[in-house]
Amino acid sequence: MLSIIIPTINEENHLPLLLGSIKKQDFSDYEIIIADAGSEDRTIEIARSFGCKIVPGGLPPKGKNLGAAAARGDMFFFVDADVILPSAFFKRALAEIKKKELSIGSFCLQSENKIHHLAFSALYNFPSKIGEKILPQAMSIFMVEKKIHLKMGGFDEKVKIGEELDYIRRAKKIGRFGAIRSAGVFVSSRRFQKDGWLKTWLKYFLCQIHMLFLGPVESDLFKYRFNHYEDFLQKERKS
After folding, report:
1. Beta-bridge partners for 106
2. 3-class DSSP state for residue 90?
3. Helix or strand run (H / E) with residue 150
4. pLDDT of residue 234
5. Which of helix, strand or coil describes residue 222?
6. Residues 6+ apart with CB under 8 A from 155
7. Structural domain boundaries of the chain?
8. How do beta strands 142-145 and 75-78 pair?
9. Of 25, 6, 170, nearest in space to 104 by CA
10. At the N or C end, where does the chain have fewer CB atoms within 10 A?
11. Which CATH superfamily is domain 2-190 in?
């Protein structure tokens, strides 16, 4: 079984799109776990309408750990709520993972906006593919075997930003990592719109440098916020 683990807070606008894309998959051996950090909108109602299991959440590392603790599957799929999966995503991804004998697999990012798609391709997808053996990359969307998650103790809840990078690089030490080529995901650019593309990528780049030379980011140095962009998007929709 595949356990799909989604950390949420006030995701009524995006969650239905992700859950709808999951339900349309030609794949049924899964469960969906929502780790909610106290939503005040219709997130929980929507999750229940799709038959999701709901557990308490928190900041992303804690929410993902709590979701994993409630999971029954032997493979975990961690994914953000503002993602849409293309058709046959699970079949393609799991087939490639099996063929390459991977324990951990990350995914390329896509966008229907051509400019955003080019940005994702140049700044994330290409570096992820060429550097997968040396410096694994992930953007909160990846699959990992349950036994690897348990062996490494899950996400480090002290990490403020880049918890997925810290996670997969620790996981790579005990399992086989690869960047999945056959299945990508459509992601929202809301954080990049809110904070600015250059500023956001620079923040992630500096986070990488910090991790390489100083270790995981456990302070609020980069002032990363969870779900701080909804007010911005509401204004964008009205304008």
Report:
1. 142, 179
2. helix
3. helix 146-152
4. 44
5. coil
6. 60, 61, 62, 64, 65, 163, 166, 167
7. 2-190
8. antiparallel
9. 170
10. C
11. Spore Coat Polysaccharide Biosynthesis Protein SpsA; Chain A (3.90.550.10)
Coil, helix or strand at residue 22: helix
* E-only strand ranges, the chain: 2-8, 30-36, 53-56, 75-78, 83-84, 104-110, 142-145, 177-187
| Inter-residue contact 187 to 109 (CB < 8 Å) | yes
Which of 84, 86, 105, 91 is CA-nearest to residue 27?
A: 91
- What element of type H or E holds 170? helix 163-171
Distance, in Å, from the CA atom of 135 to the CA atom of 236, rounded to the nearest integer, reads 36
Given a contact cutoff of 8 angstroms between Cβ atoms, the answer to whether 106 and 78 are in contact is: no
Kindly report the backbone phi and psi dihedral angles of residue 11, in degrees, each rounded to the nearest multiple of 5, phi listed first. Answer: -115, 35
- Count how many residues are written for the chain: 239
- What is the tens place of the pLDDT at every residue in 175-199? 999 999 999 999 886 766 676 767 7
The pairing of beta strand 30-36 with beta strand 53-56: parallel
